[in-house]
Amino acid sequence: MCLGIPGEIVELLADREDFAMVSVAGVKRVVNIGLLEDEELAAGDWILIHVGFALSKIDEAEAAHSIRMLEGMGQAYTDELIALAQSDLGAER
Amino acid sequence: MRFVDEFRDADKARMLSHRIAELCEPGRQYKFMEVCGGHTHTIYKHGLEDYLPESVRLVHGPGCPVCVLPMGRVDDDIAIAEQHAVIMTTFGDMMRVPGGRGSFFDSNAAGADIRMVYSPLDSLKIARRNPDRRVVFMAIGMETTAPSTAMTVLRAHAEGLTNFSIFCNHVTIIPAIKAILDSPDMRLDGFIGPGHVSTVVGCRPYEYISRDYHKPLVCAGFEPLDILQSVYQLMLQVSEGRCEVENQYARVVPWNGNAKALRVIGEVMELRPFFEWRGLGFISQSALQVREKYAAYDAERIFSVPGVRVADPKACQCGEVLKGVLRPWECKVFGTACTPETPIGTCMVSSEGACAAYYNFGRFTRERVKEATRT
Fold first, then answer.
1. What is the residue range of B361's domain?
2. Tell me, what DSSP letter sits at residue A34?
3. Where would I find the beta strands (DSSP E) of chain A?
4. d(Cα B364, Cα B207) in Å, to the nearest integer?
5. Is the CB of residue B83 less than 8 Å from the CB of residue B77?
6. Predicted-complex ipTM score
7. Angstrom distance (rounded) from CA B334 to CA B337
8. Is A11 left (phi over 0), alpha (psi -120 to 50) or beta?
């Protein structure tokens, strides 16, 4: 719950306000970007995701460091990725 | 220095370690509190205490929201889950947390419909798909997750959903730090400030710590080098007689925080007059509740909630661990009666709890734990 997971924006979803398609650990996920309305976001930008919401925009180097550190965490990171994979925010209804 | 090879830059770590040692005044002891459970995790995983002189000690603070949740609130949540037509949804971290009458897992096994979710938005989806059920999200976390909960309530409101509510257990970190500063049994030289919480609140809310309590605070990142760098910055401030709020994690934490996140929290939630923290007792204005305007989404208003206060088991010393008075292995049941598989206290449940972190990564193997706890 407290882990911030980096993801790379693949596409801002024009038909769904506040949502973007994001690549997280190689898997595409829909993430809410509504908390970053003060930032200019575009495909290729990296964001830090908490419980399905992007909380901050980060640069690529920071994302790489975070991913490496998370991978070193073992089970806690694995659990979070499994939970994220099972979460299906893409299906609105 | 077992984990030295895993470091991004082992030379930098050694250099920081050396510079920290140089700043130590002979005969003086230094004690810094890392507030956030994520930092505790990094410290134990990488054996960072081995890089610090013996006179510099890190103590673990109350920054793990699962750990500070009193048992009575777990019971309250289960009481809601057991009511007619309810689907209770919660983060996976919560499932094994023991309440006075067992955990969510126990309640689920006994027939309550309790489901793990990754995001509050998953709960919303469950509510949309089950219009004849009452879906409750067990909202927990500090300022890191509170904006997500608030955004979800706003979305439910916009959609006109009538079968979704939250059981709000969000806490705020600033009053807890103040409670620790006011505690007579705690003498600290400074704080390693939380990372992710600060992406939301920024660095400004900590300024009272330097201004009124004359203690330095450095907001820190989560890598081993971030923490060593922060300890160095704290030591430098102490040695120069400064007490300021510094931002070591500026690459992620903006000084003013995330304005939108603060705005949505403020729209949906307000401070409770008081809230109980495990180990710290009742702290005034230290938690959030749903505003009257969004009462239709407040499980505490919708359902009957027992609100009974449950004392921790006698053997459990989570309270002392959360205040930094005891170190995890100094607890009487650490590693023996209380393990991550069969936790007695919350600090052993969450992966960011000090006890679980120490148990999983501490240099104490299970055998050595037994040895160390045999007194």
1. 318-373
2. G
3. 5-12, 19-24, 27-32, 46-50, 53-58
4. 37
5. no
6. 0.93
7. 7
8. beta
Mean pLDDT of chain B: 90
> Out of B37, B41, B151, whose CB is closest to A53?
B151
pTM of the predicted protein model = 0.91
Domain boundary among B262, B280, B312: B312
Contact between B60 and B32 under an 8 Å Cβ cutoff? The reply is: no
Residue A92 lies in a domain: no
Which pLDDT band holds residue B11 (cuts at 50, 70, 90)? confident
**Radius of gyration of chain A from its Cα atoms, rounded to whole angstroms:** 12
CA distance A93 to chain B (A): 6
Whole-number Å distance between alpha carbons of B97 and B80: 16
- Would the CB atoms of A50 and B41 count as touching at under 8 Å? no
CATH code of the domain in which A45 resides: 2.30.30.140
Say whether both B217 and B329 belong to one domain: no
**Closest Cβ opposite residue A2 in set B38, B116, B259:** B38
Pair B312, B71: CB distance under 8 Å? yes
Tokens 């930094």 belong to residue: B324
Q: Is the predicted pLDDT of residue B88 greater than 90, yes or no? A: yes
Q: B350 and B209: one domain?
A: no
Verify that B119 and B229 share a domain, yes or no: yes
Q: What is d(CA B100, CA B75) in angstroms, rounded to the nearest whole number?
A: 6
- What is the torsional sign of CA B77, B79, B83, B85? positive
Nearest to B92 by CA among A74, A84, A53: A84
Find the domain containing A39 and state its range.
5-86
Count structural domains, chain A: 1
Q: Which range has the worst mean pLDDT, A23-27, B197-201, B369-373?
A: B369-373
Domains of chain B: total: 2
Query: Is the separation of the CB atoms in B290 and B265 below 8 Å?
Result: no
Residue B84 contacts A, CB cutoff 8 Å: no
